[in-house]
Each structure stands twice: as structure tokens, then as C-alpha cells.
Amino acid sequence: MKYEDASWHSGADDFPKDLTAQAAGTHSGMFLAWALLGGLGSSMHAGDLKKLKDRQVTPGAFFYEECDGKLTDEDLSAEGNAFATAYFDPESGRYLRDYDALLCDGLATAYHVRDTWQNFDKLKPRLDRRLAEWRAGRLGKKAWWRFWEPFVLLLALVLVAPAADAQAYPSREKMVTVTIS
Questions:
Q1: Which backbone phi and psi does 2 adopt, to 5 degrees?
Q2: Which is higher by pLDDT, 10 or 92?
Q3: Which residue, 84, 93, 82, is CA-closest to 140?
């Protein structure tokens, strides 16, 4: 199964012309490097880990050099694949939302995120947390005690609406009685 192919992005009409094709794989390279360094990789990459561990190559460069810009099920262990299916999937997963929230502030597009270890270090704690949530069966689920959140708006409307109506009419104390003789 192919999770990601950088050519899907770099070949798109809306891919920024000012970037190299490698920029299309930065997000995937960050995920793959995190998975491999965290023990979620397949044995296929066992001999390549030293470059990542020693930070001799950036995550995106590793992704291109070792995987030709493609992230597949062969790159990950069984657990890594199960997690990638739940979290990395561009259609239903949360990875891209987390990536955007942490790394894309002030950038023209997500493709403009620099392929650096500093950016990897910003993203890693969120990925660790998402993996822990997934292992606990909580990925994408609200805490039970947050059931009331949808009702907050309704409650605010109920409390504010009567006050607005009451202010629309003058109180009896302010009413002036005019007697005509």
C-alpha cells in the first residue's frame, strides 16, 4: 500500500513553482523519520538508521534518498502501518492538521516548511502524543467529560436572548405617564 508519493504533490498544478520537488516530501519525510527512530519501521531500513540517528541527513533528504519520495507499507512495521492508517491518511487522519498547526504558521503553503531537524524536533512531541493516544484507543476521540461543549453555545444563546429582549423595552420605573385634560 502506498501512503504517500511526493510526485503526487510536486506534479500538481498548484505546487509552488519557487520550490524544488523535494519540498513536496518534507511532511512525509518527517513522519517516516519519526517512525523509524521510534521503532515503528520495518527491517528494510535497519541499516540506514545510523544516518538519521546521527542527524547526518535531514528527514526529507532521507525520504528521497532511501525511499525515492514514496512512503509505503514496506517502510513500516505492522504497528507502524496500523498507526499510519489511522493517523497519517491524508483524507481521514490528523497528521496534516497537526503538521500545519505546528510548522506552517506564517508560511505561504505547507510545502514551504523547511526540512530541518529543528522542525522535526517541534513535531516529534505531537507525534509521540498521537501514538500514545492511538495505543490507548483514544486517537480522534474527545474526552468523555467534554460532552457538554456543543451545548455551551446553546446555553449562551438562552442566557443572552432574554436579557436582550428585556433591554428592548423600557422598565415601568422609566415610563412617563402623560395625563391629558
A1: -105, 120
A2: 10
A3: 93
Cα–Cα distance measured from residue 17 to residue 30, given in angstroms and rounded to the nearest whole number: 22
pLDDT (0 to 100) of residue 50:
93
Distance CA 23, CA 10 (A): 8
In 126-139, which positions are buried (b, 16+ CB within 10 angstroms) versus exposed (e)?
bbeebbebbeeeeb
Residue 35's alpha-carbon distances to 21, 25, 82, 98, 166, in angstroms, are 23, 15, 12, 16, 59
More confident residue, 48 or 73: 73
Closest Cα to residue 41, out of 5, 79, 69? 79
In this predicted model, what pLDDT tens digit does every residue of 7-39 receive, in sequence order?
A: 999 989 889 999 999 999 999 999 999 999 999
